[in-house]
Design brief:
3-stranded antiparallel beta sheet; 5-stranded mixed beta sheet; Cyt_P450_sf; alpha+beta
């Protein structure tokens, strides 16, 4: 008997996906791995199989179920907290998700594009105003504020609190922060949001938190803790991912100067650029997990009730059968009906997908147009990527222009 390999796999270097994924896709697309706690969930590495897993009603998203694959001791502890819709099965999942879904529909986000563009412009102008006599950290000065301030606006966070919340989010999203510091920042954010829920209960406005209070909390459809946890989820769930995708996008364009030239000549290419970016870099690669509620068979492999499943969207986004020459970044890639899985799949697909796309498109149709001479302030070999077994990202990115 050979013990299953330890998971998560480590990236070989920088943002390059772990080499194990390609081997498994070719030879053993459904296999067991070993997590930190000694458990042995199944790892699914092919695009079609992951889509099956993420739409199979015999599989549960509830993290409190025995056998659900948790990626760390912190994750296991967090699973005991009050669940929100991301950790619920039908019908509870859609019931709670629909309480806030209207704010994130494609149509509503289209109406928010001018506001999103204004946020990008403001954050970029602030960064430029500070000058670059010394290299400037693009993560701190631009990649973090843009998505943070966009979601603050939707939730209804008072402008005077933005600086405080950005500092808390910086601690949470910085890969070099200690676990204790990140946990303290989480607690501070929860306390802050609790106070904001109370304020909106007394004096509601037109923001999403007010809507949640007026339409759900006051009629007792949810309680105060639910309102706080849902607000916390929306505030932080995609924040680190968005910060990383902006930084990764900048480095990727600098690595592909001819494609950067194409984008500068035609800002409308920001849409296919973002599509390819979200395939090439999967900055949220460990969230698509399930546990079997009953025995199932997948590609001839029996997965027993109570066994965990990790559907690797990172591996699926490099599946050769779906994306030819998958390790090549190409914003001109010809695409059909196939979809990358960076935002998940099925009914648990990321609720803020259209917001994320709009933010990234605004960033990359603007950044190099305003700063055509933007370049790294350090050798590429010194870019501070996240720890090799964590979601791919960049913790600090010194740039000059």
């Amino acid at each position: 008997m050979v013990d299953p390999p330890i998971f998560p796999f480590a990236r070989a270097a920088g943002a390059e996906p772990p080499a194990e994924f390609a081997k498994l896709r070719a030879n053993n697309p459904i296999s067991q791995v070993q997590l930190w706690d000694g458990s042995h969930p199944w790892l699914v590495t092919k695009h079609s199989d992951a889509c099956s897993v993420l739409t199979d009603t015999r599989l549960s998203k509830q993290r409190q179920r025995e056998g659900f694959p948790e990626m760390s001791a912190g994750g296991k502890a967090a699973a005991k907290n009050r669940p929100t819709f991301v950790d619920m099965d039908p019908p509870d999942h859609m019931r709670q998700r629909n309480m806030v879904a209207q704010a994130f529909t494609k149509e509503h986000i289209e109406s928010k594009r001018p506001e999103i563009q204004a946020t990008v412009n403001r954050c970029l102008d602030e960064m430029i105003k500070g000058g670059c006599k010394e290299p400037v950290d693009l993560v701190e000065k631009f990649a973090l504020p843009v998505p943070s301030e966009c979601i603050y606006s939707i939730l209804g966070v008072p402008f005077e609190d933005v600086e405080y919340l950005n500092s808390m989010n910086a601690v949470r999203t910085n890969g070099s922060s200690t676990a204790a510091a990140a946990a303290n920042a989480n607690n501070d954010l929860l306390e802050y949001l609790g106070k904001l829920v109370d304020k909106r209960t007394e004096k509601p406005g037109t923001d999403l938190m007010s809507k949640l209070v007026v339409e759900q909390l006051k009629p007792s459809n949810i309680d105060r803790l639910d309102a706080v946890q849902i607000s916390f989820l929306l505030l932080v769930a995609g924040n680190a991912t968005m910060v990383n995708m902006i930084a990764l996008g900048v480095v990727t364009l600098l690595e592909h100067p001819s494609q950067l030239e194409d984008l500068n000549r035609d800002p409308s290419l920001s849409k296919p650029f973002v599509e390819e970016l979200c395939r090439y870099h999967t900055a949220s690669a460990l969230a698509t997990r399930r546990v079997a509620k009953e025995d199932i068979t997948l590609r001839g492999q029996l997965i027993k009730a109570g066994e965990g499943i990790i559907a690797s969207n990172q591996s699926c986004n490099r599946d050769e059968e779906v994306f030819p020459d998958p390790d090549k970044f190409d914003l001109h890639r010809k695409r059909g009906s196939e979809e990358a899985l960076g935002y998940g799949w099925g009914e648990h697909r990321c609720i803020a997908e259209w917001l994320a796309r709009a933010e990234l498109e605004a960033v990359f149709s603007t950044l190099f147009r305003k700063l055509p001479n933007l370049k790294l302030g350090i050798p590429h070999s010194e870019v501070a990527y996240t720890e090799s077994t964590r979601d791919v990202g960049i913790t600090k990115l010194p740039v000059v222009w």
